[in-house]
Design a protein that fits this description.
It is a single chain. This protein is mainly alpha-helical and about 110 residues long. Helix content is about 70%, strand content about 0%. It has 6 helices and no strands. α1 (about 5-20) crosses α4 (about 55-65). The longest helix is centred in the C-terminal third of the chain and has 16 residues, at about 90-105.
Length: about 110
């Protein structure tokens, strides 16, 4: 599946929000994120752009994806949440919030 640079940045921003949801950054989550960065061929220079990308910009970009790409983002977020073998309440809230916001505000 091919993503534009902005789409990649938006997806990684959503992953960043999820990783930080419980105020703990677990090694397995970071390993998963690094795997996605390599798989999607996101170079380290993009990390600065990801930090500059707002949550609102990320969600708005994801909302514009076709359904196959949205499903892919949902699957990646689900896998990331489970990467450390535990999904706590704050991660669940962030994950459900992102999914709900994307699905209910699509244009």
């Amino acid at each position: 599946m091919n993503f534009s640079n902005n789409e990649k940045i938006a997806m990684v921003k959503a992953m960043d929000l999820l990783i930080k949801a419980d105020d703990e950054i677990h090694e397995k989550e970071m390993d998963f994120l690094e795997g996605i960065l390599q798989f999607m061929e996101i170079e380290s220079g993009y990390m600065e752009k990801i930090d500059e990308f707002t949550q609102e910009e990320a969600i708005a970009t994801i909302q514009q994806l076709d359904q196959a790409k949205i499903d892919y983002v949902h699957n990646v977020l689900d896998a990331l949440a489970a990467a450390d073998s535990k999904i706590n309440e704050s991660e669940t809230k962030v994950l459900e919030g992102i999914k709900k916001f994307i699905s209910t505000h699509r244009s």
